[in-house]
Design brief:
Length: 312
């Protein structure tokens, strides 16, 4: 069964207030107030001197479980929101593989579902490993990387919904594991939202929460669980008000959704779920045997709603 063997997250120390982004991003005073007061986005993390390669390496540096196990890593998946992050032939993924001694691994990028690509990468890694694994003791591993630069306006702010921060994560995945086992995965790809019309954007806003709630319930059904069985929810860090309203819709306690990183980090692309997992562990919110649910939404070329259930 697909399991998370270890997770490492890098969030830059530099925090940039939302107000200081108004000029570069062309935000009005009303938009700044909307982000800060309504959405709860006070600041974002930035590492201006770090390249995409640097971000990924800083996350991988904290993955102690990788040391001495490099030979077992068969796949490296780079979960990314943006389809392009630099000019050809710059390729941070292969540079990281070489630096980590993983040049033998099959490395590729997963961008198909925008900010939901992190959950897709976990599912893909598990499927690939299950097809290869001969036993659960010393079988092959997969390394999932995520992390991007907020390098254009489109990579810094999304409509009046969220502001992106920088950071990265590194996660080792196995086909068998005793903890953080994936119990189910559900996703809904909505190509009908692929439109530039204002009417379609308004429809996405109307259907956003019901669609995400539906895929969360689907993942719970496939795991044979209900929300009452879930200890915590690991959200995507779009904004606070979205998850406040999601909790009302789902009748789920707000204090059991890990929202700590939203006000101080913003939406860190595909790394949100891993950052929130680390926060949950650091706060002692997860005990062995606890079930938890991760949720993510990717927008761009349509929309993808995804959810994944784990047992710690």
């Amino acid at each position: 069964m697909t399991a998370l063997e270890a997770v490492s997250v890098y969030l830059p120390r530099t925090r940039v207030p939302i107000e200081s982004l108004a000029g570069p991003l062309g935000l009005t005073d009303m938009q700044v107030k909307l982000f800060r007061r309504f959405h709860g986005l006070r600041e974002v993390r930035r590492d201006p001197d770090a390249s995409p390669y640097d971000l990924l390496m800083k996350a991988a540096a904290g993955l102690d479980a990788l040391r001495g196990q490099e030979h077992r890593v068969r796949y490296v998946l780079y979960a990314r929101t943006m389809p392009v992050t630099g000019p050809y032939p710059v390729n941070p993924l292969h540079e990281v593989c070489r630096a980590l001694g993983l040049g033998h691994a099959l490395a590729f990028t997963v961008t198909h579902q925008s900010c939901a690509s992190g959950l897709l990468a976990i599912d893909m890694a598990g499927r690939l490993l299950a097809a290869d694994a001969s036993d659960g003791q010393d079988g092959p591993l997969a390394l999932i990387l995520s992390g991007e630069k907020a390098f254009t306006r489109e990579a810094q702010v999304f409509a009046d919904t969220t502001v992106f921060g920088e950071g990265a994560s590194a996660c080792l995945v196995s086909a068998f594991g005793a903890r953080d086992r994936m119990l189910s995965y559900a996703s809904s790809v909505r190509g009908d939202f692929d439109s530039d019309t204002g009417a379609n954007d308004a429809r996405l806003q109307r259907e956003y929460r019901p669609s995400l709630a539906g895929v969360m319930r689907q993942a719970l059904d496939e795991a044979g669980l209900t929300l009452d069985d879930i200890r915590v929810v690991l959200p995507h860090n779009v904004n606070l008000v979205t998850w406040q309203r999601m909790c009302v819709l789902l009748k789920f306690p707000r204090d059991r959704v890990v929202l700590d990183n939203i006000p101080t980090s913003g939406h860190v692309f595909c790394a949100d779920v891993f950052a929130n997992y680390q926060t949950a562990c650091e706060r002692g919110l997860l005990q062995p045997g606890d079930r938890y649910l991760a949720a993510a939404v990717g927008a761009g070329g349509g929309a993808t709603f995804a959810a994944m259930v784990f047992e710690h």
